[in-house]
Amino acid sequence: MFRERNSRMYLICANKIKEVEIFEELWRSTVEKLNLHCNEWVSKMYRIRSRWAHAFLVGKFTCGMKSTHRCEAMHSVLKRFLTSRLKLFEFVEQFHRGLRRLRYEELHNDHVSNDSTPVCDGHLLSLEKHAAELFTRDMFFKVRKQMKREPLLYSTSAVTESGRVSYSLSQYSDPNSKWRVTYYPAVRDIRCSCQLFETKGIPCCHCFFVMKFNNISLLPRDLVLKRWCKDAKKDVNVKLDNPEVNTVIRCGTLSGFCGKLYHYASQTNERYQMVKMMWRS
Predict the structure, then answer these.
(1) Per mean pLDDT, which range of 3-17, 61-75, 164-178 is the poorest?
(2) What is the reported pTM?
(3) Which residue from 86, 132, 175, 217 could staple onto 91, CB 3.0 to 4.6 Å apart?
(4) Both 133 and 181 in a single domain?
(5) Has residue 3 got a pLDDT over 70?
(6) Do 52 and 12 share a domain, yes or no?
(7) Whole-angstrom Cα distance, residue 234 to residue 241?
C-alpha cells in the first residue's frame, strides 16, 4: 500500500500534465483510491499546487528555469575557485577570479554568436537561416530543435473564421496528442495551445508547421523575443568604474570587430591586399 501510494503520487508530480482539469481529476481519484484525505503532506501539496504543478505553470514565462537554477549555475562556477580552507583575503581574491571567469565566458559567448555562423541544412532552410541571424547561438539550437520536430506533425482540420485560421494538429505515432494553432494572416501572428512561446520564449514545432503550410519564409516578429536575440544588449548602457572590467570589455568588443574584419578581408584577394596594406601602415 505504501509503495503504491508513493508511486501514484510520484506519477502525478513528475508527469507534465498540461490541462488543469486532467490534473484535478487525477489528483482527486488518487486521493480517494488511496484514502489520503487526512494526509497532512498531501493536503499541503494540493494547497500549493499552483507553485509546482506543470498544468498551472504553462503560459507563465519562466525562461525554462526552475527555482534553483540560477543558484546552482553560480555555485557550479564558484566552487571551482572556493574551498572551506581559504583565508578571508584568499576567499575575496578567488571570488573575484570566479567573477572574471563569468565575464570572460559571457564575452566568449557573445563573440561566438556575433562573429560566426552555424551551418544551416534543415528542411526549413529559410526559417533556419533567419533564426541564425536573429538568435544567440544557444537559443538558435533550441529553436532549431523545434524545427526538427515539425515533420512528425500533421493537420487533422483547418477552420477559417473571422480573419483567422484554426489548425488542429496531431503527431505521427501518437494520435492522442492534440494541439490547436491559431493563425492571423493579416498580422502574421501565430498562437499555439501548447504555449511554449509564452512559457519559454521560443516558437514551438506546431507554429513551424503552420509557417510551412502557409509558405512563410521569415519568422514573424511576434515570435521573436528580444532577450534571446544577438542585439539584446544594444540599448543597454552600463557604466563601470572598474578598470580591469573595462579592459576586458574593450578587448572583447575589439575582438568582435576584428573577427568581422577578417571575414570581410578573406572574401576576395583585393580586400585581403587592401587590409594587409592598411595593417602594415
Answers:
(1) 3-17
(2) 0.71
(3) 86
(4) yes
(5) no
(6) yes
(7) 20
Q: Is the same domain home to 110 and 139?
A: no
| pLDDT digit string, tens, across residues 166-185 | 999 999 988 888 999 999 99
Contact 124, 208 (CB under 8 A): yes
pLDDT at residue 1, as a whole number: 47
Terminal alpha carbon distance of the chain:
84
Is there a single domain that holds both residue 111 and residue 195?
A: no
In a domain, 19, yes or no: yes
Structural domain of residue 177, as residue ranges? 125-228
Position 72, amino acid: E
pLDDT tens digits, 249-258:
677 667 666 7
Q: Place 242 in a pLDDT band, splitting at 50, 70 and 90.
A: low
- The percent of the chain in helix, strand and coil, each rounded to the nearest 5, is 60, 10, 30
Neighbours of 228 (CB within 10 A): 19
Segment 4-32 mean pLDDT:
73
- Domain membership flag for residue 237: no
SS3 121: coil
* 34 shares its domain with 96: no
Q: Hunting for cell 506533425 — which residue is that?
A: 153
Which is higher by pLDDT, 66 or 198?
198
Q: Do 139 and 197 contact (CB within 8 A), yes or no?
A: no
* Cβ-Cβ contacts under 8 Å for 63 (sequence gap 6 or more): 200, 201
Same-domain pairing of 223 and 259: no
| Same domain, residue pair 153 and 219 | yes
- The DSSP code for 150 is G
